[in-house]
C-alpha cells in the first residue's frame, strides 16, 4: 500500500456514484471514499484501473450483462476473441511494468474482476509462459517473439492423472538419445497422462513439460522441465506422437481450456531442456549447474510468483463478494420495530457475518501489497550475481506465499458463501454474480498447490528455524523479518495477556505467543512421534498436522498480516479520520481471527486466571461493538473497493442501489422468461398412464 499525496486530478478520474437508496448510508461515512481508494492502492494504480475499465466498457466485444447464458463453446470463443483484443489494445508495455511493478497485479485484478477465465488464459499462455521461456531455453528469443505476436501459445504441464501434489513422483519420462541429440518423451501408463494443463485443451502450441530426465545409461536424474512443441500452429493439430484432449466441462472457469496429453516416443531437440539448473553434454553426461541447496532456495522463491498472484486473485474475489453483500444489505429491507422496515444491514447478525470480511478486504489487501514488494525485492536480487542472500529470501517468500495463498483462498471462499446467503434468494440468481465468483474462485484453493499441502511448506520452514534455534542456538532471523520474534520465544512464552482487547499491539503480542506456543507444542509432539516411528520424519509429520503444524502455519500468517497492517496504520501521512476507520478494521480482523485461537490462550495460561472469566466476553463484545461502529461506514468502505457496475455485473449490487429495478431487468431479459416451453404438450396432451393394479405393473415389467 502506498501513502501518496492525493491530487484533485486523480480524484476527478473516479466518477461519483449515481444517486439512489445507498445515499442514506453514503452520507453517514466519516471519510471520502475516493481519498481512501487512493490511499490504499496509490494514484498510479487507481488511474490505471480506471483507464482499463473505461476502455473495456466502450469495447463492443466486451459487452456483457448479468443474465447472460453461454454454452462452453461460446464462452471459449469469446474468451479467445477478447484475449486477442487485449493484446491489440496493449494497456501497458514492459517499461511501464519496470517503472511501476504494481501495475502487473493491477492488470491481472482489473481484467480478472471482469472475467477470470480471460485473465487466467492470458497470463498462463503469455506472461507466465514467456517468463519461463526467457529464463530457461536456448532458443527463447524466437519463441518469446512468437508468443508476443500471437504465433504461439504456451501452457504448463506438470500434473498427471495419478500425481498432483507429489510432483517428485511424476512418471512422464524424457530420455536422452546421444545419437540424434534428442530427448524422447513418453507417457509410460494411463496414470501418467498429463492432466489439467490450462490452455492445452484447445489452444496451446507449446508446453513446458515436467518429466523425469534419463541419461543413456538409464540413470534417472529427477524432475526437469522441457519446452515442447505440441501443436502445429498452422493447423492447430497435435504433432504425431502426441495425443491431446480437452478436460470438458468444469465447475467454473469454463472459458479456459484445460487439457490432457499423452506422449508416444515423441522426440524433441536437446536444446528443449530448460537448463538454468542443469544441462546435458552431447555424449549424454548430466551436469548440474547449481548446488542442490542453491537450487532449492532460488527455485522456491521464483515459483512463488503464481501463489503471490493467486493470493491477490482471492482477495479480489473476497472484495467483490463483500461489495455485493453490503450494498444489497443496505438497500434490502425486512421487518422493523414500527411500520417502517429496517435495511437488513441494521441487524446484528448481518453485520457480524459480513463486516469481518469488509475488514479482511482491507487488511489482506495491505498484506498483498507488502508481500508483493518483498517479492519484487527478491526478484531483483535473484538476477544480481553478487548479492548472495537469494536462497534465504526465496525460502521466506516461499513460506509466506504458501500460507498466504491457502488462508486468503479459504477466506475468500467463506466470504463468497456468506455473502451469497446474506443476500437471501436473490443472491442465488446467476445474475447476482455470486455463483460465478464462487465457482471460478474455487480452483484457487487447489491449483498451484492444494491449500493443506501448502500449509505444510510454511510449517516445515518454521519448524526448521525453530529446531536450529533449540539445537544449535542459531539466531532466528530472516531477510523480510517475518520470523524474527521467534528468536525471543522463551521470553514470549513467559508473558501473559495484558487484557487490552482494544489495542492492536496487545493482539500482536498474543499472536506471537500463539505462534511460539504452537512451535513448542509441535516440536514436543514431533519428538514423541519420531521416537514412536524410529526417526521416520514422514510419519511423524503426518500425525502432527491437525491442531499443531496446520494451526501453526495459519496463526503465523494471521500474525504477519496484522503486523503489516499495524505498521501501515502507523504511517504519519494518513489523515486522522481515515486512520480511525482503518484502526477499527484492523482490530476487528484481529479479534475475529484470534477468537478461533482462544482455546490455546486458555490452555497455555496466557490468559491469567483473574481475567480469564471475562476474556471471551470482552473479545466478543468488542467484535460486536466494532461491527456496530462500522455500520455507517460500510457502504463507503465497499465503494472504495468496488469496480464500476459494468465490471461488478451484479443485478443486486448496482451502485445506484435500485436493486428491484435491476433484478426485474434480469428476470425479464433471461432467455425464455416469457416463452412457452416447446415441450408444453407433455402436459396439455400427453397425460401420464398411471398403472393402477399389480397385474398392469407386472405386464409392463
Ligand atoms: C482449474 C485448474 C487448473 C489447473 N491448471 C493446471 C496447469 O495449468 N498445469 C498443471 O500442471 N496443473 C494444473 N492444475 C492441477 C493442479 O495443480 C493440481 O490439481 C493440484 O496441484 C493438486 O493436485 P491433485 O489434484 O493431484 O491433488 P492431490 O495431491 O491428489 O490432493 C488431494 C487431496 O489430498 C490431500 N493431500 C495430498 N497430499 C497430502 C499430504 N501429504 N498431507 C495431507 N494431505 C494431503 C490434499 O490436501 C487434497 O485435499 C489445475 C487444476 C485446476 C482445478
UniProtKB/TrEMBL annotation:
Name the needed cofactors.
Answer: FAD
Q: Does the keyword Cell membrane apply?
A: no
Residues binding FAD: 159, 198
Q: Which domain of life is it from?
A: Eukaryota
Record-level GO BP terms: fatty acid beta-oxidation using acyl-CoA oxidase; lipid homeostasis
Q: Which family does it belong to?
A: Belongs to the acyl-CoA oxidase family.
This chain's protein is named: Acyl-coenzyme A oxidase
Organism expressing this protein natively: Leptotrombidium deliense
